[in-house]
Amino acid sequence: MNFSKSHSRKFITSAGLALVLASCAEDKPLNTFEPAGPKAQTIYDLMTPLVWIIMAIIFVLVVGGTLLIVVKGRVTEDEYNPDELPAQIHGNTKLEWGWTIAPFLLLAALSFPMVQSIWELEGKNAEGELDVMVIGQQWWWEYRYDVDGDGFFRDGNGDGVVDEKDEELPLEISLDRDDVVTATELVIPTDEQVDLTIASRDVIHSFWIPRLNGKRDAVPGRLHTWSVQADEPGKYTGWCTEFCGLSHARMRMSTIALAPEQFEAWLENQANPAEVPTDTSALAGREIFAQNCVSCHVVREAGDAPEGVTAIAYAEDFVAPLDSGAAPDLTHFATRSSFAGGIYGVYVGDLGDPNDDALDAGDYLALSQLAETQDSGYRFNSPELKRWVANASSRKDMDPDSLQGMPSFNQLTEEQLDDVVSYLQSLD
Amino acid sequence: MSEDQTVKGEEMETSEVPVTDTQETATVIEHADLVDDHDDHGDHHSSLGVSNMKLAMWLFLGSECLLFAALISTYLLSKANFITELVAGNPTVVASMQKFKDFAPEKYAEMLEKQSVEPIFDIPFTSASSFILLMSSLTMVLSHKAISNGDYRNTRVWLAATAFLGSIFLAGQVYEFSIFFSEGITFNGSLFGSAFYTLTGFHGIHVTGGVIMLLALLILSLRGKLQRDRAETVELVGLYWHFVDIVWVLIFTIVYLIP
Amino acid sequence: MSENLPAAETTSGSPVSLGAWARPRNPKGILDWLTTVDHKKIGIMYGAAALFFLIIGGAAALLIRLQLAVPADSPEDAIFSGDTYNRIFTMHGTVMIFLVVMPIGAAFANYLIPLMIGARDVAFPRINAFSFWVFLVGGIMLNTSWFLGGSPNGGWFNYAPNTGVTFNPDVGIDYWNIALILTGIGSLTGAINLITTILNMRAPGMTFMRMPVFIWMSLVTQFLLLFAIPVLTVAQVLLMMDRTFDANFFNTTMGGDPLLWQHLFWIFGHPEVYLMILPAFGIVSEVIPAFARKPIFGYPFMVFSGIAIGFMGFGVWAHHMFVSGLGPLSVTAFAVATMFIAVPTGVKVLNWVATMWGGKIILNTAMLFAIGLVTQFTVGGLSGVSHAFASSDTQQTDTYYIVAHFHYVLFGGALFGFMAGFYFWWPKIFGYKLSESIGKANFWLMVIGFNLTFGPMHVLGLQGMPRRMDSYSSVQGFTFWNQVASFGSLILAIGTLLVLHNAFASHRKWVAAGRPNVGADPWDARTLEWMIQSPAPTHNFDTTPTVTGLDELWRRKFNKDEDGNWERVASGDELAQPGNGKGVHLPAPSYWPLALALSMVPIAYGLVYSLWLTIPGAIMLMASMFGWALEPADDLDAPDDHHLEGASA
């Protein structure tokens, strides 16, 4: 938990509600009162003095005044004389104009910093160095990194230019061969604004990492600009906040902020294609994968497959047979810390829970190596992955019959499941 | 409405309700209202000086304004995305056109210029049918004038004329729909189809309802049950009819004339 | 439109013009309720139906709190599946808004408007009955979806395209759509009827600025309904076209725009918020002066702030869409507009406080609930202002902070106001007072349970818990406050049920005591409805009173002497009309409102399941309209006072 001293001081100076919240803020990974980036900080600084404190004062005055008046003016049944009336005041025009104009002026004054903050936050959206496209679909998030810097995320045919041929492929279809595609975890460098282009493949979702910025909807047919920036390395969790159907509650995500040089290393690794495993079990798992999973999931491999191994190839206009048309890209599955929409850990142990923000960002790059070391404290989460492959709908509400989510593969034997999981573990 | 009347003049006169001093004035005033005002027979009291029915009709039309405002807004908001469907009516091409809009706006604008909705519309034909509908407002006014004067023959003539002109308009709309349909513009084939048929169809249903009301009035008149003291009923149907005409002027301008 | 046909038919002077069937004569028992056109009986039926639906909606709320009382790291740990939970919360919202809060408002409006303006009935009694029956048909239809293929699961806001047929193929959304079109028809016809009544049927001398505040607030409410409902209907028709006839309004691959739904829905939805709260504002504006024994402070400001709320309510809808990507210019405009809508609401709160200031306050249950509204609504109003800060709203929207906000407005505001209204007008409606001791328990349990349930949601929302979540993880830190809320909801449920218990217990006690007459004016109150006997006689007023000012009854009870002191000149019972309206002729009951509403049943189910069913429905509809139009104006053979049997009590 990055709970800095300056923030503590701010909490102490804040009245009422803020105090209550701060006092129990230690284990709140989504707390909006613990900004960890400049945008969230701007919002926090606007709200705390202007809104919470002024509202608290008005609340105390109105409610306290009401109760005081009631207690003072109260007559009991014995005292009550129906023929005796209090002073009959029909109103006081000056007073009434006063309490019409005073709140008006107060709100008018407050609206200046409010409007200023809207434009300040909006204006910064396109200034970052790194562009990432964030695509929501039922019920996970995909991230596309514009590695070649051409400003596009959709170089469909991989020739380095965006031309008409790419454009004819709708968003759902394109398989980008040179930009990085990943899922569930948005990895960003620290101290750098990352611009997001938010899109959706099916229904409306909303992208929200509370400690970094507010939320922005992912609306099908529209592209929305947004941005995040983190001050410190670490994990910042988020949650889809626009109701998106059956498994909306389990559509979570996180942003992992890495030191800039670590981020570069991560990105370089992600841009590599996957390798065909040499381990027997993983190779057997790859065969099962090639027969069952490639109709939805993508694993990008380089060149031709070795002899005796089924090639994994995708048509240029590949579309997964789902309502959304896409399933998570698994090319570097084993580099992620969580899966299934961020609810289960790919690794367990010292990592903590995927819904928690406890993650040593320094270990993030080495998760797969660490998991192979006996006493590192990290283990590959094979049991959960096996349960997931065998019957995903029991681990997360999904409806594969309506093409929403992953079907179950309970026809696979225990051994075959082990093979698939070791193949997934090899994708690092 | 008369059947909803709450106090009848005759009965009040013969009633034996004990009245206290303070209330007597009120009763007398009420009486005067009832005796003098035969047109407002149904309402024991009218604070605004208009009959309940007329007030209700105005309120209903006010609500209808919002209904058509929402439908017209829907059409206008969707309009920016129409062109693509008219190009091909092919969902795949349509989808790709949408992407042009997002990723290559210049290219999209260029394609827009090549294609336009206008050739689809037969402006002279629709202008003529619009003119016919507008003329029916005139005949509607004439029928109201006739019944106010107790001229029942002309009331019937103008009611029939109004219903006839309305029917011509409807026939024109059916013809237009069939032409559009034969050119491949279906209700579910494109956004334009959905928005166009919904907006004009809603209006057509309103005209149909109006024609039915006019015919009902005509039948009543032929049976001798539409007398001069019921002139307000004709006026109410007239209000509705004029409203439907005005809405058509708006729809005609927005859908057909504005490019 | 059929309403103007009988007018043409029954020309004045031709006394007998019988249609196919005569009107029901002297119906008894259940038939009396089914055919009644009496605004008071219709008002009671609205209230009873709303309380029935309140139990359904409340049960759904308790199931929500049950599910969220424990974290669930995987679906196997949860009590309900995600699918079930989504249906429950959708129905909770839809039922509470459309079938509880709106009809309770309609119940008070129906019962009280004619009494408070000194009218015999509403302008169109048969349409009034139709409004109720079509609402009930819609409400029951919506709830049959629990058993017939699954209730709706798109949330009460029903955002497209999640509710499109691609992503949501089952019939629940169709139920939502069509049932709410039906309740919308009821609201719309009711609005036309009640506005006409208020504008045109006031007693002599009751000018606009002499109307009670409740009447003003009802007038604004009905105007909001009149203009907001058609927009919702259009949105629902478009969605129905998409789902049933394969249109493309919300189909993004064909160029449709999902934001169209949001705009249409919230252009309806925001006025909806105000039309739910304004009747409660009207109620407390009657209750507080009665029990502070002072006139309402600043009557013109109360009236004009209500009107201002009505107008501004139509101009702030997009504050529900601050994160939908409207662009900063729209966001700025709507954010600023939203801030200023707090001004008229604040004026109302301060005027209520000023009314109590210096008063002799009688703290009975009705007054407690009215004070409850003033304080709890203030919390909701202030959290509302914090949403107007659009940049901070990007953190708060769609979290439990919003859930807390609108429950403080709708429960702490509207429902507390309605409770005040129940306790205040119960003797006028049923002839006996509700027990004060049960009432006090009722109030305190509700206010404590309410704050325990919804107070913690402020904290949960700011700690990052989103809405519409069937589960949360044990490590997210939401467990403690969720458990507090779930515990509070039990107290709240018990507190709310006490009002029903109170109704029955007090009735038993009253019957045991030999049904003593509670008197025309048991609270020494201010407005016209207390001038007639309790329970209100069928014909309302024996003779229409002439109004000389605001608070007419109070003006007749007190007089200012030369020294400027107020002295009583009469008691309420002395001024009360005796209630023997012999010779008053009332509109006769009718079968056709019910028949017309029932003809909607096959049409509605036909639109869900099979269009063939709509054909018999359409035939029934035409038959009912003909029957309605040709029905004789009145049962002319009946004795003049045949409706007045119960009135001599």
- Quaternary state reads heterotrimer
| Backbone shape of chain A | elongated
Uncertain residue segments of chain B: 1-43, 84-96
* Main sheet attributes: strand count, strand direction, barrel closure of chain A: 5 strands, mixed
The counted number of beta strands of chain B is: 0
Largest sheet, spatial ordering of strands of chain A: 4-3-2-6-9
SSE topology string of chain A: HHHEHEEHEEEEEEEEHHEEEHEHHH
Average pLDDT taken over every residue of chain A: 84
- Tell me the strand percentage band of chain B: under 5%
Number of strands of chain A: 15
What does it look like?
The complex is a heterotrimer of chains A (428), B (259) and C (649). Chain A has 428 residues and is α+β, with helices and mostly antiparallel strands. Chain A is built from eleven helices and 15 strands. The two termini of chain A are 28 Å apart. Mean pLDDT of chain A is 84; it is low at 1-16 and 167-175. Chain B has two domains: 2-36, no CATH class; 52-82 and 117-257, Four Helix Bundle (Hemerythrin (Met), subunit A) (Up-down Bundle). The radius of gyration of chain B is 26 Å and the shape is elongated. In chain C, a hairpin with a 5-residue loop joins strand 2 and strand 3. A two-stranded antiparallel ribbon of chain C has the order 2-3. Chain C has 649 residues and is an all-alpha fold.
